[in-house]
Hints:
By secondary structure, the chain is mainly β.
Amino acid sequence: MASAFLTACGSSPSTSALAQGAPTLGFPSPTPKFDPASGARGWGTIRPSAISNGGPFVGLTNIAWSTWGGAKAEGRGRGIYIPPGGSIVNEVSAPVVVVAFKLGTCDNHRVYTAVEWYYPSKGQAFNPKTFESWCNGLLHPIPYPFSSLPSR
Length: 152
């Protein structure tokens, strides 16, 4: 299982998007951990084509969403996969499935409060019990097994 270890930051949701009620992927937080100045992207937006923490990690790219707005949104793109027990020198680009779920509110905005991704070609599958909350930045379960997180 490869859950998103990304921070909830990026550009703010547009007023028109909020008025239409379309959910965004999380909601940008003013805390230093989620500083948009880091180069993070995708957070607080609708159907982001890329999701990244910023910094040295690439993140998820070329995401095409097949669903958005319901209880669960699903997209496919590319991500960096690091095999279990491997390090950044072992990373490979691989097809990835991104799932945004737990539709709710954050600071009175409609958002997907959780996201995870997985690599089907590496034998991984969606697990709704392992995710990061994009309102509070917490990993679930806590503490999250860092060794199973892919690099961005």
